[in-house]
């Protein structure tokens, strides 16, 4: 295992990443940027699972696939809404959302008709 030490982008310190790849000193920063991008993907997947995915005990793959695809759709609606909201108020387009996932779910569910 190799540890990569690069200057932190968020503070004056150093960011550390561990890898099993052979990475030269010149490549270390690029490898850490790729890890950072991958970490954002993992966070998005976690958000889909925790905030948007309906719970089911069905073993039918079609039901489970439908629930997952619907959760991804809701997640994408949330990210688009957040992006448009930031653009409308002139907010910086960073990763931190103005509209939380929970607020988005509440807004969507408040527009749905009540079940019979």
TrEMBL record:
Against InterPro entries, the record matches this protein to: RNaseH-like_sf
The cross-references to SUPFAM superfamilies, in alphabetical order and at most eight, read: Ribonuclease H-like
Per the record, the domain of life is Archaea
Name of the protein in its database record: Putative transposase (TCE33)
Biological source species: Halogeometricum pallidum JCM 14848
């Amino acid at each position: 295992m190799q540890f990569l030490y690069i200057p932190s982008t968020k503070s004056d310190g150093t960011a550390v990443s561990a890898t099993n790849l052979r990475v030269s000193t010149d490549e270390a920063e690029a490898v850490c940027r790729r890890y950072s991008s991958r970490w954002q993907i993992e966070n998005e997947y976690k958000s889909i699972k925790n905030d948007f995915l309906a719970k089911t005990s069905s073993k039918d793959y079609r039901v489970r696939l439908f629930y997952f695809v619907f959760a991804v759709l809701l997640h994408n609606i949330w990210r688009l809404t957040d992006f448009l909201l930031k653009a409308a108020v002139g907010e910086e387009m960073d990763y931190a959302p103005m509209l939380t996932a929970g607020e988005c779910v509440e807004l969507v569910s408040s527009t749905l008709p009540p079940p019979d």
